């Protein structure tokens, strides 16, 4: 973890300016009839999960260029996730991937407590073969034509639930790479039927207070068809399963230019929006840092979420899901968590009563201007003040660099081989 003296020293440097900026923004918002402390308290209580795999350096299918001091195992990963949360106070939980993160659950609980974290949704990775498995997932997992392979994948998911119960998780996220690379390779209907049949068996093993999240993705690793390719198929799955099954929207899993905020609105309206994987993309599942390419789209998604906030039954899970190929993953995760908070704060600023009035009058220009007013407001002082008051860093990246954390762990963690491609 980061020495708290360093955080305090860095905060001392920033505090006077921050207070002046915060007060000025407070006056500005006051004139818009918005109470800045209300927005700040919403940001303070907001948390987003980080994926365990996100703290390792990612790669493409061509190569992976390792960073220095990369985590060697889940305990190193939890240390790094602890730093992200310590400085941002925005990422209190971690989403594990099984089998990547398998370890004795008592040790995981002890480590999480030590670094101030809890565990979010479990991810069952049946998109690759695990060592010691009897059957290969080369031609699919839950939808494989071979019954024994499907059974193995079903049991793995049930194992993930049991594992998660021991560490306080309350959700299982299923994303499968199942699909086909050639027209004619698979029978779409039969393949989906097999998927549904397998998913029903997993759903039957779900504890009462758990949620099953299914994640759609248009393509990759299968390049012609994917079993759960879009939100329509995802919604069918959730409807077939039951009340505990909901859809997870990964922002990078759609065709370019797809109106994601509208997908969010539709799923929300019918009670089937279960969670998010936040990231950003230009072309496909690029897994770029959240808000780095299209922060307006992120804002528009949060605009939909804020609309539903007053509904007590609406509580989708929020996670980051991104790959850091050329940056220090800790820095990218901190910046991304703050981008998510920014979009949330901006969406909270939208004058909804005025917006609805313009919508009813069909005043397109004033409606869009009213909406954008939230996005155009610089809410950074709110985010920084929330961090400062919670014991985090006003400027997390600067404090992190000052701390020398990466150099310190580099001494303890040997360089991991960079050969080959792959996401992790
Ligand atoms: C997939 C999908 C999953 C993530 C894996 C690593 O594209 O986004 O959510 O766990 O990548
Ligand atoms: Mn994802
Ligand atoms: Mn993805």
Automatic annotation (TrEMBL):
Q: Does the keyword Isomerase apply?
A: yes
Q: Which Pfam families match?
A: AP_endonuc_2
Q: Which UniProt keywords apply?
A: Isomerase, Manganese, Metal-binding
User: What Gene3D superfamilies does this protein's entry cite?
Assistant: Divalent-metal-dependent TIM barrel enzymes
Superkingdom per UniProt: Bacteria
> Which part of the chain is the Xylose isomerase-like TIM barrel domain?
96-287
Which InterPro entries does this entry report, sorted A to Z? L-rhamnose_isomerase, L_rhamnose_iso, Xyl_isomerase-like_sf, Xyl_isomerase-like_TIM-brl
Q: Which GO terms describe its molecular function?
A: isomerase activity
PANTHER family per the UniProt record, alphabetical: L-RHAMNOSE ISOMERASE
| Protein name per its UniProtKB record | L-rhamnose isomerase
Q: What is the lineage of its organism?
A: Bacteria, Pseudomonadati, Pseudomonadota, Alphaproteobacteria, Rhodobacterales
